[in-house]
Amino acid sequence: MKKLTVLGLAGLLVLAFGATGYAQAPKLDFKASGAFWSDTYYMKNTPPYHATAGIYRVVPTALTSTAAGLNRVYSYLDTRAHLRFDAIMGKELSGTFLFEIDSTRWGAASNATANMREAGNFGSWTTDRTAVEVKNIYIDVGLPYFGIPVPMTVRVGAQPLGIRPGFFLYSDGMGIQGGINIAPVSIIPYYYKALEGVDYTADDVDIYGLQAIAKISTFTIGGYGIYYAMNTYPFQVTTAAVPAVAPGVFPQTMGTYRANMWWLGFYADGKAGPVNINFDFVYDKGKVKERDTAGVDDVKYSGWATRAKIDYPWEKFNFGVVGMYATGADAKKTSATGLPGSATTTGVNSTKVGSYVVPPGSEMAPINSESVVAYSIWAGASGGCGVLETSNYNSLSRGGFGGSWFAKLYGSASVTPWYKVTFQGLYIGDTTKNGNTWGTAVKTGSTTLLRDDKDIGIEFDLINDISIYKNLTFSFAGGVMWAGDAMDIYTGGTNRSPNNPWAIRTRLQYLF
Length: 512
Fold this sequence. Notes:
Blueprint: H1 2-18, E1 29-44, E2 73-88, E3 93-103, E4 132-143, E5 152-163, E6 169-182, E7 185-195, E8 205-216, E9 219-233, E10 257-272, E11 275-290, E12 299-314, E13 317-326, E14 352-353, H2 364-367, E15 404-416, E16 419-430, E17 455-469, E18 472-483, E19 489-491, E20 494-496, E21 502-511
Parallel strand pairs: 12-14
Antiparallel strand pairs: 1-2, 1-21, 2-3, 3-4, 4-5, 5-6, 6-7, 7-8, 8-9, 9-10, 10-11, 11-12, 12-13, 13-15, 15-16, 16-17, 17-18, 18-21, 19-20
């Protein structure tokens, strides 16, 4: 099967590029664009990447690494820049280079090693770091008809894999993405190579997908299906449990499990009378199984999430409502990692993950920007800072929504041509069973049985956007969340209620 996949893709590339080999080359049009943004963070009980290890935060010891920062103020600055070059040879051919430069902390300590890898460390004192990251390199080709009278395109190289990024999936990687336009329907097939292990062994990770988009009246309707065939899972680990092998034969940092996961989704964006409507639904299903040891039960995955948003614009105002629900796991059946053979809080092996999960590497958590405190806003060089956020680049994870639901009301006003203010309020609930999505409180008289609460909290935010120049904006946001019982944690031998989380953020952004 692996050979057939490689040969088929090779044939597609030969067909795509060979047919245009004798076309007259048009004049090269070279364009540059990019962005620069710098953020400040000042917050309490919303540490960045809080407890990102694992799929699910229910184990009391999961808070050990961050307990020292409990009820303390975090503050830092970060910076990110993008520089994009497009080499365009007419409508049929273009090539894109996208570079990224990060400073995850101003004043970061140098982590120079023998190979001088210092990605994300541009902010070190004296700068001069090897911090330029190659994010994307790909070409776009318009295909000849080959007897099929519809426009077709293909994109090849290191490129984004984005499907409803703030709700489901955004990653970057090597792949092939097509485009077939059969008006009014556009069809987008996907193939990506997430991991290549030993060339002669089926231990790699392949991603296959298909999306269809149609314009119907005032609505854009879309549906998608995507399949992750993970013969190695997690993608990369640092555990001593990985069997030792001869150097160069099999990377000793690869996971020892297999996983097969499906995601099926539907969305609609459009205008109905005076209101704008956005709707999303996605369902995940699959399993993770032990690849080397017999007799270990598989862990089955099955979850879903949905979100609906309605906006009512009126003159210089906009009023809106958002509702989101994502299934949670059952702590009696789900471990912190969701791996076969791993123990739940009751001591039995994990068998099921009912939480909504996103694919490994999906950055939907810091992208969604649903609020300032509970969910992430303005993803920067250091990711987001939402209380509920969890990101895992090597394994399945809850993303930003799994195990929670919320109802949000908001209103904004364009006070002047250069100033916009937004006020919003959210009620946030917990959908986890026999435990809490974020909190780790235990039942009275126990040190392991988790308490099951439903109230994460109530949050209020104020967001200000100021247009200094046409391409330069400054944003200032503040929010506070009154923590509910589901935020209580078990630490120091007792349940504790953390101080109400809050965050103050600023962003200076230049687009060119």
